[in-house]
Design brief:
It is globular, with a radius of gyration of 22 Å. It has two domains: about 180 residues, HUPs (Rossmann fold, 3-Layer(aba) Sandwich); about 140 residues, Nucleoside Triphosphate Pyrophosphohydrolase (Alpha-Beta Complex), CATH 3.90.79. A hairpin with a 2-residue loop joins β6 and β7. It is of the alpha/beta class. The strands form two sheets. Strands 6, 7, 8, 9, 10, 11 and 12 form a seven-stranded mixed β-sheet that branches. Strands 3-2-1-4-5 form a five-stranded parallel β-sheet. The longest helix has 18 residues. The chain has eleven helices and twelve strands. GO terms for molecular function: nucleotidyltransferase activity.
């Protein structure tokens, strides 16, 4: 008899590999039902999160026979870059799926520091599993996205021992899409970016600024002109210049990327707050700490804007439209907006 009503398995599954499959089968042996939490849901495609939660759900279903598939529930949960808030979102998603008296266990293993999330659920007994082979999704993604033109087939063949056959087939099909080519471009840019400071004595910590500018219940956004995040919505911002203060860098980036022409005194009067966003995983470029300056211009006429510098386009966007745009944002900029403004309901989990 299985000791639990439900076993919870949390992961990103980017993509599904044989280690995930072994944990999933161990969870099925512990409980009548397995609830898989698909993390990093509702995000734009990036080399770290190349596949949507729906695509990862398809990979998981395809890797199991029907008898096991029917015992699995798949629940997407977004990244909040705030562990207590994220853990509560996971608990709420599980609670909505199970009766209140269900016997629940958490299945997982401590691979490295990234496994610390397993400690965020003290109310669920943890069934610790040994590491299921030397499987890791990061080198799988690197091999897949780094494949040279015409070399995809040997790259996938080299992953035969790491991936279920269904995942390899799925990846081969996905490689025929425009999204794959765009992800490869992003992957190459990020690889070269990291290589430029690989010989530094310590990994660098970058400091950036972002401008959150509100006017008439609209917010000023740009579309990024270059990778990483090419074509995605973002806040106007950029890196701190060596001889600038944070304030000066914010005003400079705002003017350069949107061609906004407002006096500094007007912007200073409109400043409503500054918030630091420093989650270690908020940017794929490395450790990037940003200072977001929030301005509110009230009901004044919308200032004219136009994309410039690193921005392909600048535009005022209604706050009410933001929830539907979540998967089109760069890094954690959608979450930054959600910090300053209560985004309209309904929001997904």
């Amino acid at each position: 008899m299985q000791p639990y009503d439900a076993a919870i398995l949390i992961g990103r599954f980017q993509p599904v590999h044989n280690g995930h499959l072994a944990l999933l089968r161990a969870a099925l042996a512990q409980a009548r039902q397995v609830i898989v939490i698909l993390g990093s849901a509702h995000q734009a495609r990036t080399p770290r999160n190349p596949f949507t939660w729906q695509e990862r759900a398809d990979m998981l279903r395809a890797a199991l026979p029907e008898a096991e598939r029917s015992r699995m529930a798949l629940l997407p949960v977004r990244d909040y870059y705030d562990e207590p808030r994220w853990a509560e979102a996971v608990r709420q998603a599980v609670a909505a799926h199970l009766p209140a008296d269900a016997r629940i266990a958490l299945i997982g293993h401590f691979k490295d520091d990234t496994s610390g999330y397993l400690r965020a659920f003290p109310g669920w007994p943890l069934v610790r599993m040994p590491r299921q082979g030397q499987f890791d999704a990061t080198p799988v993604r690197d091999a897949y996205l780094g494949a040279a033109p015409g070399a995809l087939e040997p790259a996938l063949a080299a992953l035969t021992g790491q991936l279920p056959a269904s995942t390899r087939d799925w990846l081969a099909r996905f490689a025929q899409t425009p999204d794959y080519a765009a992800l490869q471009e992003e992957w190459r840019v990020l690889r070269d970016y990291r290589a430029s400071w690989a010989n530094a004595p310590y990994p660098p910590v970058f400091v950036t600024v972002d401008a959150v500018l509100r006017c008439q219940d609209q917010v000023l956004l740009i579309r990024r002109a270059h990778a990483p995040g090419k074509g995605l919505w973002a806040l106007p911002g950029g890196f701190l210049e060596p001889y600038d203060t944070l304030w000066q860098s914010c005003l400079r980036e705002l003017a350069e990327e949107t061609l906004l022409q407002l006096p500094e005194a007007q912007l200073r009067a409109a400043l409503r707050g500054v918030q630091v966003f420093d989650h270690p995983q908020r940017s794929q470029r490395g450790r990037v700490i940003t200072h977001a300056f929030c301005f509110d211009l009230g009901d004044t006429p919308l200032p004219a804007v136009e994309g410039g510098d690193d921005a392909a386009h600048a535009q005022w966007v209604a706050l009410a439209d933001l929830p539907a745009m979540e998967a089109q944002f760069h890094d954690d900029h959608w979450q930054i907006l959600g910090h300053f403004f209560p985004l309209p309901a309904p929001l997904r989990s």
